Amino acid sequence: LDPDCAVPTELPAKLIFRCRAASINLVAAPGDAPGCRINIKLDGRPLRTGEQGADAAITDAGSHAIINEPRLYRLVDLGATCGEHLLELEIGQPGVKLYSFTFG
Fold it and tell me: What pTM does this model have?
């Protein structure tokens, strides 16, 4: 167990929590394998166009971010619409390290 970050021990791993925010950011690192995909759901569904942060992508398969280097990843940006939301992150690859979240 790393005291500074969360590292999934079984895959796929999910992190689910409720927050009140208009933007959600994650500080993460890829571990040994760059290119770790984290699937993102907000309120039980993939992000919609216009809800994604600068580091999130929306495809036919859903919404996700790719963790390539240690840094802050901007996942969700709802503009000025602050509200209570349920965030779900699903990690399907080993090695990713989740350090902290920031909210706006």
Answer: 0.93
State the pLDDT confidence band at 1, using cuts at 50, 70 and 90. Answer: low
How open is the CA angle 9-65-35, to the nearest 5 degrees?
65
Quote the DSSP letter at residue 96: -
Distance of alpha carbon 91 from alpha carbon 104, whole angstroms:
23
Q: What span, in angstroms and rounded, lies between the C-alpha atoms of 29 and 21?
A: 23
Residue 47, class by beta-carbon neighbours within 10 Å (0-12 exposed, 13-18 middle, 19+ buried)?
buried
**Whether residue 34 has pLDDT greater than 90:** no
d(CA 8, CA 80): 33
30 neighbors 98 (Cβ within 8 angstroms): no
